[in-house]
Amino acid sequence: MEMGRAIQAIMAQAPPMIARYKADLAARGLGFTADDLAAVAASAAAHPNPPVSEDPAADAAAMQRAQEMAMAAVYPVTGFDTADPRLAPVGMSLEAYAVAAKAVGWANGDDALIERVCTALGVTRADYDRAGAHWTEVLKTDMPVATLYGQLFVAAADLPAKA
């Protein structure tokens, strides 16, 4: 019962976090231009699916481990405190990383698209790469943070447009 309440709190927490992030981008004159959004849409059409796994058995084992970790995790009952050190930005905030991931999709090898996304979000490619290395590892091992990230990713469905 407590885990359910905690997950509901995290689900409720994500949309306002993304809204605040989008407002911050707008206040700094950042966001995706119409051309950026067209490039993101074209990339999504060209890369609609993840790459084919080279080791499906290892992927299945990793999924099983993630399910076990999710069931054993302790989730914050009232959602994450903004001062939770697990959410401290490394390269980019978790919110920014979720928006970037939503924009890049499965086109991880498209350097031009990644540069475009970085520019729209006001970060450098080095920030993006540092965030990717950090958050990817966190999301594999910290199921409460992974749950929040998933909700942020969903809440980032409408990429922040530049005003």
Write a structural description.
There is one protein chain. It is built from 7 helices and no strands. Helix 4 packs antiparallel against helix 5 and helix 6 crosses helix 7. The mean pLDDT is 96. The chain is globular. By secondary structure, the chain is mainly alpha-helical. The protein has one domain.
What is the averaged pLDDT score? Answer: 96
Largest sheet: none
Quote the distance from N terminus to C terminus: 43 Å
Count the domains: 1
Shape: globular
Low-confidence stretches: none
Our count of helices gives 7
The count of β-strands is: 0
| Rg over C-alpha atoms, rounded to the nearest angstrom | 16 Å
Beta percentage is: under 5%
Which structural class is indicated by helix and strand composition? Answer: mainly alpha
Q: Considering DSSP H and I runs of 4 or more, what fraction of the residues is helical?
A: 55-70%
Q: Give helix and strand order, one letter per element, not per position.
A: HHHHHHH
Task: Summarize this entry quickly.
This protein is mainly alpha-helical. Helix content is 66%, strand content 0%.
Detail the topology: elements first, then pairings.
Layout: H1 2-27, H2 34-46, H3 56-72, H4 94-104, H5 111-121, H6 125-141, H7 143-155
Helix pairs in contact: 1-7, 2-5, 4-5, 4-7, 6-7
What are its keywords?
7 helices, 163 residues, mainly alpha
